[in-house]
Automatic annotation (TrEMBL):
It comes from Kribbella sp. HUAS MG21. Residues 1-97 form the OmpR/PhoB-type domain. GO terms for biological process: phosphorelay signal transduction system; regulation of DNA-templated transcription. Keywords: DNA-binding, Transcription, Transcription regulation. It holds the Pfam family BTAD. Belongs to the AfsR/DnrI/RedD regulatory family. It comes from the Bacteria. Gene3D superfamilies: Tetratricopeptide repeat domain, Winged helix-like DNA-binding domain superfamily/Winged helix DNA-binding domain. One of its GO terms (molecular function) is DNA binding. Residues 1-97 bind DNA. This is BTAD domain-containing putative transcriptional regulator. SMART domains: BTAD, Trans_reg_C.
Amino acid sequence: MEFGVLGAVTAWDDDGRPVDLKGARHRAVLARLIIARGRLVPASRLVDDLWEDPPDGALSAVRTFVASLRRALEPDRPPRTPARLLVTEGPGYALRTDAVDAWRFEKAMASGRLDELTEALALWRGPAYADFADEGWAQAERARLTELRLRAVERQAEARLAAGLAAEAVPELDAHVTEHPWREEAWRLLALALYRTGRQGDALAVLRRAREMLVDQLGVDPGTALGRLETDILNQAEHLEPASAGRVWEEAAAAYDRTVGPRARLESTVGLLRNLAVTGGGGLEAARRHRLAAVSAAEELGDADLTARVIGAYDVPAIWTRSDDESQAAGIVAAAERALRTQEHPAARARLLATIALESRGSTAPRAAAAAQEAEQLARGLDDPALLAFALNGVFMQSCGRAGLAPRRDAVGAELVELSQRHGLLTYEVLGHLIRLQALSALDDFPSADDHAAAADELAARHELPLVAVFTTWYRAMRQDTPDAYRHAATLLDGAGMPGLQEGLLPLALAGHSIRHGQPVPEADYGPYQPWLQPLGPVPEPPPGLLLEVLWCVTAHTARERGDDQLLARARTALAPAAGQLAAGSALVTLGPVADYL
């Protein structure tokens, strides 16, 4: 069910057909609940909002409106079963939905991308809450959404200018300033768009018209931005022309290549690889392929400090606890251990130790957890938020050594989010949200997990971090827990450059679905999970990682099927610390409540 308030208040069913919402007061109740954004609205408040002078029986009328809306919004709901959308809470009602066009508009606008801004503006069918323009309870929200729409028009124009589409921006900006002549930013953008299409005279005329409009009709002087733009146009200032990203890159790269030596190039290379890694796909594979080569090149130069910097500079946030390339990871760990022997500075040591903790993911060796602990201790004694975030990533990676540690991981994720928001560490803020998404899934707090998935998606859309969608899409597939949902999510792994995540994940998810629904485990290529799903001999201990509880639950299932009491006892002992949790700490695959297997 979709709800629309960017125009007349309406609703559409899953096939896109309008829903019959009955009379004006029925729609008013729905609109009032949408404005509340999921919060409780007391029935007495609805009475006051619907009538200036409430008649006798107004409260009963509100209940009638709510009942009618429920029938319209959930026509297939069986009798006497609780409503899912329009719910009763204490003394009032709340609407439980995320499917509101105004909220989609806000999310798309936040991204700043031209395509999303264009789609967002297309959602508008007229003035917001058009059929309740005179209602006091709607006025603040109408004003807020109207202002957002005006800003969206201007941000769309900015995006077009940045993309070299100045001619496309002119017609809508011209209409925009005609309808809203007090918006100086719109005048500035229109003049700049005209200038970039070769219409310098028209651009200057627009600026004169803006000045006259503001002074004569509104009695205010134009701001400095308009005056500065007029001067720049008259001088044909170079900065008014759109920069060519390719030209800037080529000129800067050529200048850099002429002026720096091999050591600076190596450190810069790691910076490029770090940025390349977060793009996913071929970028991540290329970064992984060249990283060890960069470390080896630094070691060959015989500069221990340079080697330590090259190793520690690759602070790419990591969320999955199985390595994509175990051989390369071992090489990085060995190089970091060698570099540690000559490093005394706490920051350099912390970076090397955090690297060891991250690259030793899945290891049962005590050294990995000890490195994570020491890196955290060193980082907390330094005034370096980015270093602390890197160290906390290592702590997270080493927090899966036994079942039931979701609360510890949730605390790490919460600190990462708070630290990153204070210091502008974007990629670590995303990491923190994903860690909390995983931990809260294990703790059976899906409403909060949903919030963190949405926050991660919003940041990823705004800053072009495509790998985030892999994890949030898989999370939503796990929430649905259907084979089709898992198969759809698996398509995002093709070409994502994460073999450590991809190998065997879809078959494991489908096997988990079969186990939960009392069906036989299907024959499949389970890759690294074969020893637990189709064991050919003794079942080994599952390795540390986010799938630890899942694999122990599979082990318990296998033991029960075999009648293997000894194996069952091992599984029971291993799973006992997670007795009150779900085997869903990966936020990708679920085996349901751990207690079911105990």
